[in-house]
Design a protein that fits this description.
Length: 284
Amino acid sequence: MQRQKSYLNENPTLYLVATPIGNLKELSERAINVLKEVDYIACEDTRDARILLEHFHIETRVLAYHNFNEINSSDGLIDLLCKGNDIALISDAGYPLISDPGYLIVQKAIAMSFNVVTISGPSAGLHALVASGLDARHYLYYGFLNERAAKAKNELINLKTFPYTLIFYEAPHRIKNTLKMLYEVFGDRKFCLARELTKIHEEYIRGTLKEALQLDDLRGEIVLVVEGYKKDTDVVDYGQINTQIEALIKEGMSSKDAIKKVSKETGLAKNDVYRHYLDSHKIC
Ligand code: SAM
């Protein structure tokens, strides 16, 4: 066990400073002061960081701290902390560590009993959640799904019965497929897509996943908030499931294999899929 009284000791400190996700006015006075007072600022992209720092007349020395070079970079930062320097870690936007680098340096700094202190600010996921209209009492921040569609689908299958609101980050070029996959795996649940938060083109789109299939041309930075699983009310759209089965049969798959594949992909029980498929083919 370890106890850290951040402001009652003289230990060097690693500050985790949240920075704006669009609107620069969201950088707090406290964050500006910390960024001015530390010995070094470690950041993902030194050019991006300089734009922010110049805006606030912050002249602190800047160091690169990359995801792909986290082991070496974190050792370098630990060296600086050992020499008595205070360091602020920032990411390109929002909180460091939240779908951004920083986990390793935080672990190492804690292991060496340096202070690790967060300086609050915006984070896209929370920003979207509270205005989504979905239940914000309990939620899971998931971040990005895997870039490979098959792996992403498996991740969704694992989340299918998670009972609380889910928060995803997504890139604009993948959002259409992700919405389609969400509908296929989760059925027709409520969602809120939050785009370009805090910027001039900020937009919230609220509706159901089935409606989301009509969305086109979604640009900019995107957070997707999706309703959690509800045992009594989650309605599976078996019409859509049957269409998927029929499409596979048309491609030459046997009905048995098509049912097996669609059950696996949607996370639904094979017997249920089979029963509904048979029902839809009963001749009255
Ligand atoms: N560390 C950041 C945070 O605390 O939110 C997240 C960084 S992650 C690399 C970048 C992703 O965050 C974007 O692809 C998008 O999904 C989301 N994001 C960041 N800024 C956003 C904004 N202004 N509006 C909507 N989503 C945003």
